[in-house]
Amino acid sequence: MHELSITQTVVSTITQRMGTARVRRIRLEIGKLSGLVPDAVRFCFEMVAAGTTCEHALLEIDEPPGRAHCRSCGSDFATSEVLPLCDACDSADIAVLGGTELRIKEVEVDPACAQPADAPTGRGSG
Ligand SMILES: [Zn+2]
Question: Domain 1-64+99-115 adopts which CATH fold?
Answer without folding.
Answer: hypothetical protein PF0899 fold (3.30.2320)
